[in-house]
Design a protein that fits this description.
single chain, about 325 residues, alpha/beta, Rossmann fold
Amino acid sequence: MKAGALIICFGPLGRLIDALAAVQRLRAQNTHERLTLLTLPKFADLAKSTSLFDDVSTVDLWQNTNALRTLVQAIKKRRFERIYDLERSSHTLQLQKAFGTFGPAFAGAGKRSKWKLETPPSHPLEADAMLLDMAGIGGRGPGPAPGPDGGWLLRRHAGAPSLEPAFFGLDRHFVLLNLSREDDGPCWPSQQFTALARGIVEAGVGCALIGTIDDRMCAREVVQVDARIKDLCARADYYQLAALGARSKAVVGHADGAARLACAAGARTITLHEGHEDAAANAPRGTGAVALVNASLDALPARSVLDVLSMFGALERTRAN
């Protein structure tokens, strides 16, 4: 059996979700007999649930040259025909360099890549699509590169009570506010999230906060203004986040992995961006994706976001999700 292709993407979550669009294209073109993903252990179960990969291998990011050498030797034994670097980070550049002159054919950004992105587009979806174009993979349609189809997120545990809004004390009319970020970029101030949450519940619509455990302090500040606001930070897993997003009237906040999960599952996602360059490089792509841009996130008022929610009917209880 041929070893097929190795796809490298360590994360974070948002990068992995975006990378699945390229993997879906590879799978649709039946270009390789087998597709293997190399990622971090915390993403293994999620990657397996996509059914896109024949194998999912995991590794912790190496701390020394010995660990890197061991990883390279293990990959060499698999005799992959191609390696697609869908991360293009300093770690994957180190990995490619460690293969030396006679490594597998790489598609990436490293100096020895057979298919090399000299100046990658700012959005990773465009960069992935261009990389596959260069490697001779067909199937790209016209227009901007689309985000991944995340229907598998909803099928994984379909019908499970834990995926229903009622499991978290929500009815079918609710908005999710995403507090978390995956990078060190600008954040929307907590007082604006507070004002937005207050405006949502005063309109008669439910409001829940999602994020990581690091966002709990901000969440506590927000929920204090009204008992109807629910704190779900660090309480929902990947599939619950996707299901809640798909069933919500909108998901609003930073453009991180949770926003991409929800967008891939079909949610209306309204992500907040400081400047058009940030939106062009980081906004999720999907049928329900909306990028709200302001010159400064600090100066973006909650009233403006409420207006956008109202425009999409997210503050009307009578409108079906």
